[in-house]
Amino acid sequence: MALTTVHLMRHGEVFNPDKILYGRLPGYRLSDLGNEMARRVAEHLVAEKRDIVTVIASPLQRAQETATPSAKAFNLELGTDERLIEAANYFEGKTFGVGDGSLRHPEHWPHLINPFRPSWGEPYKEQVARVHAAVDSARELARGHEALLVSHQLPIWIARSAYEGKRLWHDPRKRECNLASLTSLTFDEDTLVEVKYTEPVADLYPNASKVAGA
């Protein structure tokens, strides 16, 4: 068997005091806690003696900052893959909610009519296609070893759901993809044989897990 593991890591906590749905907007960096999460995951991977031979991140700043400590820990150059980027979202740059958020304005309501596609953003099937393609590329680079890909909550969760044969539309509150978590995909040659979810920095949550962002 030539086992290859690709770890899909969600970035750490973002500095976002205005609780904006920042999506793909530039300039959203990690908070101090987020930087600590990134550092701790790197330490965890080293302590676990993981065989990481490539580290690749979404081009967004928060993902790049999350991946950097792990790339340094394994003495690797950090790569970038556009296919790992956050999902496009109509509500990007807005607050999202009923009170003083976007949902109180009727002009936004047509974007909420179809949760199955979804109508407010990038289709789920397109997210699956690009993230699975990024995973396939990483598997080729790390065949027989391990790769670390840093991405965002929704693309990771949708990619995992597709691998597990689950429906793509879902309740966002039930995603198993916390900040700085690892969704680890193990392949025997080209066949997926295991999906494992871990939270190396769970002790840093509990408030961080409730922070808005993706």
TrEMBL record:
<dbReference type="InterPro" id="IPR050275">
    <property type="entry name" value="PGM_Phosphatase"/>
</dbReference>
<dbReference type="InterPro" id="IPR013078">
    <property type="entry name" value="His_Pase_superF_clade-1"/>
</dbReference>
<dbReference type="InterPro" id="IPR029033">
    <property type="entry name" value="His_PPase_superfam"/>
</dbReference>
<protein>
    <submittedName>
        <fullName>Histidine phosphatase family protein</fullName>
    </submittedName>
</protein>
<dbReference type="Pfam" id="PF00300">
    <property type="entry name" value="His_Phos_1"/>
</dbReference>
